[in-house]
Amino acid sequence: MTVTQMRCFLTICETKRYSEAADKLGMMQSTLFKQIKAMEDELFIKIFDKDKKGVKLTGAGEVLYPYIVFMYGEYEKMIGRLQEYSISENASLQLGSLYFTKQYDILQIIKEFGTIQPNIKISMDEYRSNELEEMIRTGKLDAGFTYKELVEWEYRKILPIREDYLVAVMNKNHHLALRDSIQLSELKAEQFVLMKGDERLYKQLLKFCIDEGFVPKEYNMDIRLETMKELISTSGCVTILMRTMAEDLIEDKNLVMVMIEGSKKLTLSFVMENDTKACEAFANYIS
């Protein structure tokens, strides 16, 4: 359970409405839903129910509430104590990330770090994986967020943050759509539409298929997420991508997500080459 999840939980309890909680936290409602869903999946409970006034805690949520209040209170005490050790001089930290890693709430991580180290000025831009690696390698960035499996450079430090698993996204009327999980090889006869914007990620998705004994038949085009939604919804083709990325696709009610069996995964990681105090402080916060 993360600090962000606890903050989301407490803010919903305070406002009694998802929309007001999202506004207060400065995040999209879809991101807020994902945070609560992650808590529910981790604890195997349902936390909130809807009522006429908004939302209310379930019985399990009532049990959970005092523990979250205590843990978050201890976190705030820790933040207060750590302020004594804050980097005193003005420092900067230049970060980069892949275009699609913003869906992992990286900005929230940076925001929370800023409460501990308010004197560090942080900037972040998005890149393709090969561009990100070049920017860090040449010293134009201090560090970045990428998938460990896409790394080709031997960084000074790689800190795993979160594993993300491969899923298939398809039309809700597809013959496999009602399954909880499938073998990737069951899609070998399907028409694929794959995101090609990041060459290393694209090659990794191809490798997942090749390891299962087939080369996907695919539309030969570089497309955006909205175009991908339209193609899957109307043409009957399928795609494979990481679960966190897929959650944006399945906001379209015509699409469903099906887990791929076999532990096919990528690991979101923090990579760094610079050894400045600001960079080390951020790495220590993540670890």
From TrEMBL:
Keyword set, alphabetical order: DNA-binding, Transcription, Transcription regulation
The HTH lysR-type domain covers: 1-58
Q: Which SUPFAM superfamilies match?
A: Periplasmic binding protein-like II (SSF53850), Winged helix' DNA-binding domain (SSF46785)
Q: Which family does it belong to?
A: Belongs to the LysR transcriptional regulatory family.
Protein known as: HTH lysR-type domain-containing protein
One GO cellular component this record assigns the protein to is: protein-DNA complex
Keyword hit for Methyltransferase: no
- Report the GO molecular function annotations: DNA binding; DNA-binding transcription factor activity
Q: Species name for this entry?
A: [Clostridium] citroniae WAL-19142
